[in-house]
Amino acid sequence: MKKDDIRRTVRARKSLLTENEKAEAAQSVFDRLEQMAAFMMADRILMYHSLPDELSTRDFLGKWSGRKHFFLPRVNGVNLDILPYEQTRLHLGAFEIEEPDGNDLTDIADIELIIVPAVAYDRHGNRVGRGKGYYDRMLAGSRATKVGVGYDFQLIDDAIDTDSHDVPVDIVITQSHTVIRRR
Ligand SMILES: Nc1nc2c(c(=O)[nH]1)N(C=O)[C@@H](CNc1ccc(C(=O)N[C@@H](CCC(=O)O)C(=O)O)cc1)CN2
Ligand SMILES: Nc1ncnc2c1ncn2[C@@H]1O[C@H](COP(=O)(O)OP(=O)(O)OP(=O)(O)O)[C@@H](O)[C@H]1O
């Protein structure tokens, strides 16, 4: 399935979600992430600060920020910088995303677990992002466990057409499914 068709279909499905459904899905997905060894064992975790149309990470960030070292991406040209998450030091950055202030840049190689946002995933861990390649470029330099999260309809049955630069995730978690990529 072509990436642009997937982006259109997922956008339409998202627009039908109620606030209640959004909250329930986020709770269920992050409850399961918490119980996974990959999360329990990891201390340095790259999260994302959710946009309104993404599975919300707000509650989860708040719940665990005292016990894990969370990091967030910050757009820097065509690349993503990685900085520590501190609730008091966020500003609205590129694309209206809340991003960390300061210059405490962290090496991607020091991150143990990455929660990777996407428009959709297939059962092989392939992903469709927002089409700017930010995560693909960053993930190319990482050996961390990569976890995709989303609503049920963001896990699609058809295989996604991949390009050579696409980096798959190891695990996809949705409300009803946990998919582990075969290696
Ligand atoms: N929460 C969150 N943070 C993230 C990402 C993400 O997908 N989600 N990113 C993942 O890469 C990076 C930012 N990349 C982004 C790329 C495009 C758009 C976006 O809104 N695109 C519009 C098109 C508008 C335009 O071209 O200016 C769109 O999708 O409709 C947002 C973020 C880093 N931080
Ligand atoms: N490692 C890379 N090096 C150079 N260019 C890249 C790399 N990865 C992706 N790109 C470029 O980024 C653009 C978008 O790629 P693609 O459509 O796969 O993004 P995406 O997976 O939807 O986005 P994202 O990775 O931000 O979630 C393409 O033009 C691609 O050539």
UniProtKB/TrEMBL annotation:
Q: Report any one BP term from Gene Ontology.
A: folic acid-containing compound biosynthetic process
Which InterPro entries does the record associate with it?
Answer: FTHF_cligase (IPR002698), FTHF_cligase-like_sf (IPR024185), NagB/RpiA_transferase-like (IPR037171)
Which top EC class applies here? ligase
Q: Which reaction does it catalyse?
A: (6S)-5-formyl-5,6,7,8-tetrahydrofolate + ATP = (6R)-5,10-methenyltetrahydrofolate + ADP + phosphate
Cofactor list: Mg(2+)
- Enzyme Commission code: 6.3.3.2
Which positions in this protein are listed as binding substrate? 54
Keyword Nucleotide-binding in the entry? The reply is yes
Annotated family? Belongs to the 5-formyltetrahydrofolate cyclo-ligase family.
The name this protein carries in UniProt is 5-formyltetrahydrofolate cyclo-ligase
What organism does the record attribute this protein to? Answer: Paramuribaculum intestinale
Upper classification of the source organism reads:
Bacteria, Pseudomonadati, Bacteroidota, Bacteroidia, Bacteroidales
